[in-house]
Design brief:
The protein has 181 residues and is of the alpha/beta class. The protein has a single domain, classed as Metallo-beta-lactamase, Chain A, CATH 3.60.15.10. It contains four helices and ten strands, in the order E-E-E-H-E-H-H-E-H-E-E-E-E-E. The strands form two sheets. The protein has a six-stranded mixed β-sheet. The chain has a four-stranded antiparallel β-sheet with strand order 7-8-9-10, with no helix packed on it. Strand 3, helix 1 and strand 4 form a beta-alpha-beta unit. The longest helix is centred in the middle third of the chain and has 11 residues.
Length: 181
């Protein structure tokens, strides 16, 4: 069994370079200074295959998934409801259609409310809608570890509440690694 962590994006909410503001103090000649918004891919490889979990769906998600050659997701975990962590949610629809199965989505109560307000159609087809739902919702709670299952075995995530401006967000401990965005 091995765990692999791939940082798909680590930029600020506007990314780097920022639209209309440029590179700031970052050197545009260094390709590492071009940063997409926050998302993390965690993969557990086991005898039966690979379990793949995405943390956050940044607005840059389409490019991130293409660059990482992601072909399936077992789950998505949302750290909080800010736009730079959720507004790429529709970019997982092709994976759902291709794999013919919904993706499990984990979030806390506050994030759930925001996701349902903005993207309710990903959980339930609205009246007159034509697209099928793509996510199965699950709730997590502070300090209570939960398992995400897939072909590679379970990935255990421990939610850790942290302050993030005027809201609370969650970091996660996975094995001996912590992800806080």
């Amino acid at each position: 069994m091995s765990l692999t962590f791939t940082i798909l994006g680590c930029g600020s909410s506007g990314g780097v370079p920022r639209v209309g503001q440029g590179w700031g103090v970052c050197d545009p000649a260094n390709p590492r200074n071009r940063r997409r918004r926050c998302s993390l891919l965690v993969e557990r490889t086991g005898p039966g295959g690979v379990t793949t979990v995405l943390f956050d769906t940044s607005p840059d998600l389409r490019e991130q998934l293409l660059d990482a050659d992601v072909r399936h997701l077992d789950a998505i975990v949302f750290t909080h409801a800010h736009a730079d962590h959720t507004h790429g949610i529709d970019d997982v629809r092709p994976l759902v259609l291709h794999n013919r199965r919904r993706i499990d989505a984990y979030c806390d109560e506050e994030t759930s409310a925001a996701l349902h307000m903005r993207f309710g159609y990903v959980f339930q087809t609205p009246a007159g809608g034509s697209y099928p739902p793509i996510l199965n919702e699950h709730r997590f709670h502070e300090g209570r570890a939960f398992d995400i299952h897939g072909a590679g075995g379970a990935i255990t995530a421990l939610p850790i509440r942290m302050h993030h401006g005027d809201i609370d967000a969650f970091g996660f401990r996975i094995g001996n690694v912590a992800y806080c965005s």
